[in-house]
């Protein structure tokens, strides 16, 4: 059982959707598929005025598409960082010649509108503000994206958001929040096999993109826009993944997108209730605990490896460790995609048994009970 | 039936290989898959000293990986062009600041060693020479890659080859030919669904890559090398396509790689015999006719659309038209991947009937007979 922050488990229907003979990507059949996928994605992003593009690349590729299309050399880019994925974003902009100003966020906090306003006053020449909607590496969610979007627009800065793990798990309404370029992965809360990235582009972002004369061809969004006029991609797309994604979106809309989001919220409520009962400490400060992935300090005396190996060997549940300089210092449990009550309950149960077997004094029954109570209270009907 | 130059038809076993529940890409299971795929790919490229990387991207992305990793701003890059894919290569290098010198090849010719030698004497500061092994847009194969590789090495220039449609159809021994960076697609002669690109890197190429301080993160080959030490990719790979590719390689090696190449050669012999019987004119000059894709002028009085639509509607066979400025001026028939005798024969038969129905005086029986004779003579036992 995968309880890692992607790739996630996939519905049988999605698996079957890929089991087809190949088609020409310059055919009416592919164009219909593209149209279907884009129109459904539009609902996910609540995008009326923004465009949506689908790249054959991982989420990191999508973030690079944002950076490489928007950045003029020397552009001041403000990155609000609470972990590794913000650092990657900074790296992508720097690779295309941006003058990156990194603003480390206070321990456990997401981006703060008051701080952003001050930063933009200190750096009035900021061209772009960027941060992850959900910082997967530290389990911190950005709560105030709408307000930050308003502030960015007020200051004439574009807002770029890495929503790779957020989209499908929480609302990411790009127009309403003034997100100029938003990047999503399909292999996270949208429960599709990995290999595609979604990129939304606002009208303001287009103005900046069009000013660039030279864009790296593979991620050139102007080319994408041109081919999208006939529902095609400039280069050969990963056709099987388009089939998979289309079916994953069918499943989401049959279930109801609001309910899909509510299910993620309910899963998070149950998960956190159990984790708190074990007395685990989160990297996220109060109110910033990510509903997508919980990141916990390793309890004193225990090791990352012991926890994860026990979970895997004894209970068949895969959870994640820390990334980069958090390696060995944290463990992470995701609540992504095909979340079910029993997945959450089994994870809390297995984690309790694991912690206990490693010498920690935890009350497994109480944790399971608290988890179940929260699931019952929150699970969408 | 797909007779287009990619994506190609896929074996049922390859389709089934993807029909699995998702796994963690940081697991022993994925590492074993990666190792398997890389070691088999090594045989395809006859690569002993070169490294092989697998990118989640189309072939164009692979070419961009070559350009973005190798190019220092101002580097002189000599591109030998016989069509659109050479132009794309030039565009990729230019996007990363290269001083691109385009050398248009004489009509219908592949790169010529004598001309390359002269060009390198005229431009002794050439850092990189690049061209497509198989120019898919005009049906021209490069015959003299080995000799050109020797000349490039003699002159201290790196050789970059776009072998996206060539690999798996003809021998592309990267070490023997001194190809420093070779890019292959898996969705062509390797008969895998699209979405992965292969990139080989020679020791000499590494020296140049390491000189660069800033590489675009998504295609950063130094990162790829680092993660390959433990058989992983830096970012989430398209796992389902790795399964597909692994099974496609199993099929190729069970059949025998030499035989697989011989089958492509036999298919080409049969295809060209039929096309010649119809008196069609190739873009490729004598000796440069690509065994991977045949590109023909539209016979006088006929149109591209009429030929392709009739082939599709009456015979269920998809062939391709021209690209960019060849649009409406040519048609192309591919001989890629899962080539069988009956595919070739049916295509020649259907094409003859099509040309006849459009008013051309052709001898369908003679063409089919000539095709079959060549197939019989060349098909591997």
TrEMBL record, chains A, B:
Entry superkingdom: Archaea
GO BP term, example: glycine biosynthetic process, by transamination of glyoxylate
Keywords: Aminotransferase, Pyridoxal phosphate, Transferase
Domain Aminotransferase class V: 17-322
Sample GO molecular function, one term: alanine-glyoxylate transaminase activity
Cofactor annotation: pyridoxal 5'-phosphate
One Pfam family from the record: Aminotran_5
Family per record: Belongs to the class-V pyridoxal-phosphate-dependent aminotransferase family.
Protein name per UniProt: Alanine--glyoxylate aminotransferase family protein
High-level lineage: Archaea, Nitrososphaerota, Candidatus Caldarchaeales, Candidatus Caldarchaeaceae, Candidatus Caldarchaeum
